[in-house]
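Supplementary notes for students who missed Thursday's class. We covered one full example, reproduced here. Read the sequence, then the structure, then the short commentary at the end.
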Amino acid sequence: MDQSDELGDFLRSRRARLRPEDAGTAFSGGARRVPGLRREEVAHLAGVSTDYYARLEQGRHPHVSESVLEAVARALRLDDTERGYLLELARPKSASPQRRRPVPLPRVRPAIHQMLDVLNDVSPALVLNHRSDVLAVNHLGKALITDFDALPHRDRNLARFVLLHPAARDLYQDWDRVAEAFVASLRLAAGRHPDDRLLNELVGELSIKVPEFSTWWAGHRVDQCAHGTRRLVHAVVGELTLSYEILALPADPDLSLCLYTAEPGSASAETLSMLAGWRAPTGLRGRSPGSAQKSRPSSGTAQTRAQHTAAAAGRLPQVTRKRKLPDDLWEST
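Structure (token representation):
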């Protein structure tokens, strides 16, 4: 990704979303040919000359002071994530970066694996890097999303799964919103790691294979997606509403822990508890739970057996959307 071009595109996209009244200043000058603020208006708000700001947007100002960038960020009303992204893009880069081999995926420490195991009964959990590569996942995470460990190495990526796997569109109730958020997260990562070959290849593949990707990418939205809510329709247990948090692992640079939790006492908590009590059979490993209902025709006998077993355990899920269960779908741990 060309940093100069990206800097200019980003500034123009942030300028286009602001109106004079949004910026707290009323500018005159007749009809506007383009949406948003004009360059001279941003320059005035940032306290720099119009020519200086124009060169900044055109990528012709390689050395910009942090104080100027902070003033531009305030003028454009950037949030903290966007401000950090702007500073990353404007940071001077080597004129001729050396060709480097891809950095191998970091090893997940045994203590982290132990933590994932402890969370098995209460919280789906994944260890991710800046590309959303899934470096480790616990049993409940596999049951909720997919068995990443059974996939080819290049496919063990949460963003790739959400954007490319057909089952993801069934799993996430509001797939468009979730997918766009992942694109915003990838754009933020691309700004921070412009020379990451694997990340650039992922972006290129998604731009070809996902029809909506180019529009979302061109919007220049950046987002850490550090927390939020996921509304899911699981093929086995039905609907869940889960909160997620992305937690940094200070001792492991570039790694983070993604945790999903349900509100205590809610139907989703009961359903998640039900999901934790079962494991995917061998025939479904490597496939998303969202595609499980398509494996083969359902059997009323199998469904009744699963319900009776769950009822005996006192954990019958609150399934709000009926799903047909194949004979081999449930297998007691």
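Commentary. The beta strands are 125-128, 134-137, 227-234, 238-248, 256-261. The chain is about 40% helix and 10% strand. If anything here is unclear, bring it to office hours.
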